[in-house]
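Narrative of accomplishments. A recurring question from our advisory board has been how the design workflow behaves on a single, concrete structure rather than in aggregate. To address it, we present the structure tokens for one chain from the evaluation set, followed by the sequence designed for it. No filtering or post-editing was applied between the two.
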């Protein structure tokens, strides 16, 4: 309960479940931090943001215009809630910059990390397609620029755009593979391997095409993705650095050998 109270003071919005905590390693914020509302991006800046998305560039001109007319984007602080579990799935959501986390938090305070989403990633299409309540919470791990496409716009694209349909089919297929791997890793791998695989998932070229070999991410933020305490995440990352798989610096991880990172711990499966 003490952990939740500290978290509630730090985050932009109060948790829906009073005892739910973001993780064993909560986000760091000044003790006197005050909640701030998301900063809406000017509509004139939306074409530049969406032009970075391959699915948007593949749309016909009239469909691009429809997306730009209905979508919006927001700057969000680290720790801000983006979407909540059991609330309507009103938007398909993408990450232009920053890093966000998809997770489930129980009333007892236990949590289950589903995925991290780095720049270039889009998520939530399953719930939007089924018009159901969202099945997980979404929070910004670090300051992020997030894009929102309304559910009705998404459904119009599904009904009228072949390129968009092709993208969504690939997206659903890749997302299913990612979630199967996440469940497998959480149940069968030791901590070092889980940390390696959590990082490797951020380099999926189909789901996250904009991820470079240098990750602007702190060790604490890696812990939030992997569901590992701060002390243990430091040990795991140092072990990977000793093996020359990655290099650590302040709030940054340089991946030196992506192939070995993705293969690390696979012999345990």
């Amino acid at each position: 309960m003490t952990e939740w109270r500290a978290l509630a003071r730090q985050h932009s919005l109060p948790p829906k479940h009073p005892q739910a905590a973001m993780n064993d390693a909560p986000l760091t914020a000044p003790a006197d931090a005050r909640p701030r509302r998301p900063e809406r991006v000017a509509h004139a800046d939306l074409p530049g943001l969406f032009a970075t998305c391959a699915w948007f560039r593949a749309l016909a001109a009239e469909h691009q215009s429809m997306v730009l007319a209905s979508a919006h984007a927001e700057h969000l602080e680290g720790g801000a809630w983006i979407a909540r579990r059991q609330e309507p799935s009103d938007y398909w959501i993408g990450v232009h910059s920053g890093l966000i986390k998809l997770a489930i938090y129980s009333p007892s305070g236990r949590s289950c990390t589903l995925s991290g989403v780095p720049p270039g990633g889009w998520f939530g299409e399953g719930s939007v397609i089924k018009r159901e309540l969202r099945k997980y919470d979404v929070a910004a791990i670090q300051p992020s620029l997030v894009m929102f496409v309304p559910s009705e716009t998404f459904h119009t694209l599904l009904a009228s755009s072949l390129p968009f349909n092709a993208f969504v089919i690939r997206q659903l297929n890749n997302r299913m593979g990612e979630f199967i791997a996440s469940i497998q890793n959480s149940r069968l791998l030791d901590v070092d391997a889980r940390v390696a695989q959590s990082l490797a998932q951020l380099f999926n070229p189909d789901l996250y095409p904009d991820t470079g070999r240098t990750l602007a991410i702190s060790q604490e933020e890696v812990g939030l993705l992997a569901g590992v305490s701060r002390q243990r995440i430091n040990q795991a990352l140092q072990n990977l650095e000793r093996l020359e798989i990655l290099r650590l610096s302040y709030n940054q991880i340089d991946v030196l050998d992506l192939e070995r990172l993705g293969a690390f711990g696979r012999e345990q499966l």
